[in-house]
Amino acid sequence: MLYSFGFAPLVFSALPVDDASRFLRAAFPHYYVFVIVTAVSSGAILLRSNFQSAALTFAIAVLAIYARQVLMLQINAARDAQLHGNTEAKGRFKRLHGVSVVLNFIQLIAAGYVLYRFL
To answer: Is 2 domain-assigned?
Structure first.
């Protein structure tokens, strides 16, 4: 949540839009690796005690792999096309970015549910 609601907005408020975009483009692959490693590690630990929570954390990892390996590349290609004057790319970028935001929220909700189960 800190990355989505703290770090990214801070970068856009502190840097010019082009610099902020380049910086976040470079940071996102690392963010997804963190999510993947954390989710897989958590899932492996949870396998022994709670299969449902383990399955949810593995699902978080799968969504992160998809976001990193497929969706992020499509988003970057749409953004590049938009910057090169392709007017249709703007709508594609917004739609793909919206998908990535929804997937991230799904991951956050799933992680929150797994944590809630331990209360």
So the answer is: no
pTM of the model: 0.89
Give me the number of domains the chain comprises: 1
Q: What is the dihedral of CA 104, 109, 112, 116, to 10 degrees?
A: -170
Examine residue 104 and state whether it is found in any structural domain, yes or no.
yes
What's the average pLDDT block by block, 10 residues per block, for the chain (119 residues)?
78 90 91 97 95 97 98 95 90 94 94 91
Any domain includes 81: yes
Please, what's the b/e burial string for 2-20 (b: 16 or more CB within 10 A of its CB; e: otherwise)?
eeeeeebeeeeeeeeeeeb
